[in-house]
Amino acid sequence: MVVGAAVVELRIRGAQSLKQKRGVVRSVIQRVRNQFNLSVVEVGGQDTWQRAILGFAAAGEESERVRSVLRDAIDFVERTHLAELRDSDIEILRLPLSEREAFPSWEFQE
Q1: How far apart, in whole angstroms, are the C-alpha atoms of residue 82 and residue 103?
Q2: Three-state SS for 2?
Q3: Which three-class secondary structure string do you get for 31-90?
Q4: Mean pLDDT over residues 13-39, rounded?
Q5: Residue 90: which residues within 8 A CB-CB, separation 6 or more?
Q6: For helices 63-80 and 18-36, angle between their N-to-C axes, nearest 10 degrees
Q7: Across the chain, what does the average pLDDT equal?
Q8: What's the whole-model pTM score?
Q9: Domain ranges of the chain
Q10: Looking at residue 14, what is its pLDDT?
Q11: Average pLDDT for residues 9-34, to the nearest whole number?
Q12: Domain 2-97: CATH class, spelled out
């Protein structure tokens, strides 16, 4: 199993309040969830008007596929032009468990 995580730093231009910023952030989060079926959450910048840090998570069988989906999601955020993409990073974690190790056959005794 492969788990991928991405972090995206956004600048929300023109936001004059946390309420305005939250509207933009909610829109970005919902669009990414709908388009890519990823877990998305705001992980930083909650107390600032013009900065947000979003975290994306995906799981799959192939690391290149997981990385590609996360990269596509980051590119999508940039193309929406709802906020300026300041920085991004992707990390991939391969869990070494095989099917056999993850689900051992158990013998139950009564």
Answers
A1: 44
A2: strand
A3: HHHHHHCCEEEEEECCCCCCEEEEEEEEEECCHHHHHHHHHHHHHHHHHHCCCEEEEEEE
A4: 94
A5: 4, 5, 6, 67, 70, 71, 74
A6: 140
A7: 90
A8: 0.83
A9: 2-97
A10: 87
A11: 95
A12: alpha beta
